[in-house]
Design goal:
five-stranded antiparallel sheet; about 475 residues; 3 domains; 9 helices; Helix Hairpins; alpha+beta
Length: about 475
């Protein structure tokens, strides 16, 4: 399932913003509602203190009254029109000795209060009205401790009372509700604006990607020479474009090599196929004896073997370059294997009167791949035996070194100039181009050697002087460490 990068950016950013807004909005809501509640409680307390300061005993009627004068109202931070409408007073026996008319006979919630700290709590009257009250422990002057409900004894003693002042919370609830919806709508509006803004920003920011896709689409399948270039490229996209151009360059190089390989294979097969065709046509041109046919068949078989060798080398090289060949290490004495392979080439070397000089260590064993090592040695000796001059010298040495073995093979009669040594490992390259049709040399052996040595973790170097020595040296590591 494809996911839009733009949509993922927008959803992620908006989601994170919504979460932040919810946290901030929730915090703001809590702070504001607590502030409103504190203001509400403070107003209740101011009214309660004003009422407490106004308590007095009416000596004429023998009852508790609330008297308000201007000085008391000023000290209490209130005024006559702000006196509490819901107020109730209890004595120590929890009997209500005063109840405001606004209560309509209902009672506020009573709890015992001692000390100077006010107590706040919610209440619900019997008629269903809800609100919040503050309860204070107060002392009323001019009351005889022996009579709270009837007559005054004329004493100046005081007695503790509990004063409750309440007020409905409808206005507070409405204010809190307004704050809630204001914060919520602000969060929703901010989220919507943020989504629209992010959509515009991301669409503009991702426009270079659309341009990049268009430029990539212009690259032809059969022509990878075009490179991707975008004006005003964002710095974040520069590495992507650079890597893309590098990839196109490698693909172009690979395609060029494949085209060249196809042409080289066609060229290399054309000569042996022409030889086979010519031999067969000559044999069929007129009746011949058995020996003539035999010579033709032997010649054709030799050419077929050369073609088979080239195909085998190509397949092995292709497998090596595609990592299809797996290295299987085992303990081997490289000098003994070199001695055995060299023995297979002695007849050809003796036929050219080549002097063989060898210095082979036949005791040191290392861990490496037997099949790959034999292919390497055979291709090196095959190359040396083919190009050594008649009466020349072939020198082969195998010596132990720290961490592996060094193999050196050199021959006289080099056809490679010193400046051409970097090309010897290229496919189908020959130092002597005039020998393209000789002995079946197709220029794959050293390319295969280099790739196999790389797989073994070793190195290969070449030195050459035209008409002089051609030397290849291998360093093969011990895989056992």
């Amino acid at each position: 399932m494809n996911h839009s990068l733009q949509m993922r950016v927008i959803v992620g950013a908006v989601g994170a913003s919504v979460l932040i807004l919810l946290v901030m909005g929730g915090g703001l809501y809590v702070v504001v509602t607590r502030s409103l509640s504190r203001q509400f409680d403070h107003t209740l307390l101011v009214r309660a203190l004003a009422a407490a300061a106004s308590l007095d005993w009416n000596d004429q009627h023998g009852r508790l009254e609330v008297k308000i004068d201007a000085d008391v109202a000023a000290r209490g931070g209130t005024s006559l029109h702000t006196l509490p409408q819901l107020m109730e007073i209890w004595n120590v026996d929890k009997h209500a000795i005063y109840r405001s008319r606004a209560l309509h006979g209902a009672d506020l919630a009573y709890i015992p209060v001692t000390g100077a700290m006010p107590v706040y709590r919610r209440f619900q009257l019997s008629d269903g009205r809800r609100g919040r009250e503050v309860l204070l422990a107060v002392e009323a002057p001019g009351i005889d401790s022996g009579d709270l409900g009837g007559k005054a004894k004329g004493t100046s003693s005081t007695i503790p009372l509990v004063l409750a002042v309440g007020h409905g919370t409808e206005a507070l609830a409405a204010a809190v509700n307004t704050v809630f919806w204001s914060v919520l709508l602000a969060c929703l509006a901010t989220t919507g604006l943020l989504a629209v803004t992010l959509s515009l920003i991301t669409r503009r920011s991702l426009r270079p990607l659309e341009t990049l896709a268009v430029r990539i689409g212009r690259v032809a399948v059969d022509d990878l020479s075009e490179r991707v270039e975008i004006s005003s490229t964002p710095s974040e996209m520069v590495p992507v474009i650079d890597r893309l151009n590098d990839l196109l360059a490698r693909l172009e190089e690979t395609l060029s090599r494949e085209k060249a390989l196809t042409a080289d294979i066609a060229h290399e097969l054309r000569t042996p196929l022409a030889a086979i065709q010519t031999g067969l046509e000559v044999s069929l041109s007129r009746p011949r004896d058995g020996d003539a046919y035999r010579r033709t068949l032997e010649s054709t078989l030799a050419v077929a073997r050369q073609m088979q060798s080239m195909v085998v080398n190509l397949l092995t090289l292709a497998r090596a370059e595609s990592a299809a060949l797996k290295v299987t290490s085992q303990a081997l004495v490289v000098g003994q294997i070199a001695e055995s392979v060299l023995g297979d080439y002695r007849p050809a070397l003796n036929g050219k009167n080549v002097q063989i000089v060898k210095d082979l260590d036949t005791t040191t064993a290392i861990g490496t791949d037997s099949a790959m090592l034999e292919i390497i040695l055979r291709n090196l000796l095959d190359n040396a035996a083919a190009y050594v001059d008649s009466g020349g010298t072939l020198d082969m040495a195998v010596k132990p070194i720290h961490g592996g073995v060094a193999v050196r093979i050199s021959n006289t009669g080099s056809a490679v100039a010193a400046d051409d040594t970097p090309h010897v490992f290229e496919r189908f390259w020959r130092g002597d181009q005039a020998r393209s049709a000789d002995g079946g040399r197709c220029g794959l052996g050293l390319a295969l050697v280099q790739r196999l040595v790389d797989l073994l973790g070793g190195t290969v170097t070449v030195e050459s002087q035209h008409g002089g020595q051609f030397t290849i040296q291998l360093l093969i590591p011990d895989a056992t460490g």
